[in-house]
Amino acid sequence: MSPLSLISALTINADTEEFSFRLDLSRSESFPSHRFSCVDDKFHADIRYSTYQVPQNAAHLQLKLGDCLGFGATGTVYSAHISNSLSDLSPPVPQELIVKFARLNHCRSLAREAWIYNCLDENQRLTGTVVPRCYGFFTSKLTESGVDYTTSSSSELPFELPWSIYEFDRDPHRDDILHDDFDDEVVRPQTWNPGQTITKDSSPWNLWTPDPDDPLVAVLLLEKGGQRYTDFDDRDPLVREDVELVCEDLEFAGIAHNDFRMPNLIRAPLATSVCRRHKRVHKWNIIDFNQAWPLDLSVENFPRDTNAVLNSRYRSGYFYGWQ
């Protein structure tokens, strides 16, 4: 059974020196991407790239929020420990997880990242091998939850709340523009009629904008990995070999990451499974897929162009943060 089918409701309890809250969230649909094609360098509407079914009446997970592990302009990442018994779940859920909060104006980007995890899990079974296992995408209206909320924060930790809008955000009233958002450049079949299938065009996330009067909070629940890749790791030839194989797995899955940098490469979780392609347990995992998009390698006719798009550019200037 996929980890994405185990949990349908989530409660996060926080009681720290910076804030105290109880937040009840439910599973939400992720945000599908259009398919990119190297044949014409355009995005294509494709009914096969649609939303994934959200589990109903699955487990209700309760978490106690722990330390802040990282933050950026689009979100914050916390550790969390399970506080209720889920012994009957199979596969078992680790006692410590990662909660990735979107800032109030970046829920749409997190919904896209959640879809990429769905895609990697359902089509390639790569979650738990080259990317951490994902346990779902959850949302809640703050006005309905009774949680006090703050719409801005300082650029220095501690933040006022995990979902607070970044103080130096260039446009706090909108989410980032995604690569497939330019609708006039999207190719659609002449008989395009997805019916009841929810693709990017019909997803509620497609036209979503943050509402300061009725804010939405969104979180992604992930398996906890280890430390980020460092300059010390970069000097180890065995590390470099394993990372190159992990990048190869992602490329064979037809996923272009588009933001592969040192902070987005972490030590793999302890329960990482054997990679079917390389017959080994990879020591490294790739994270942060909010800028990613899919390709269908079965219809691509130009391998050189496809490789250029899918190439993660490991150990490039961009990877090191030089450009």
From TrEMBL:
SUPFAM superfamilies: Protein kinase-like (PK-like). Keywords: ATP-binding, Nucleotide-binding. ATP binds at residue 100. One of its GO terms (molecular function) is ATP binding. It comes from the Eukaryota. Signal peptide: none annotated. This is Protein kinase domain-containing protein. It comes from Lentinula detonsa.
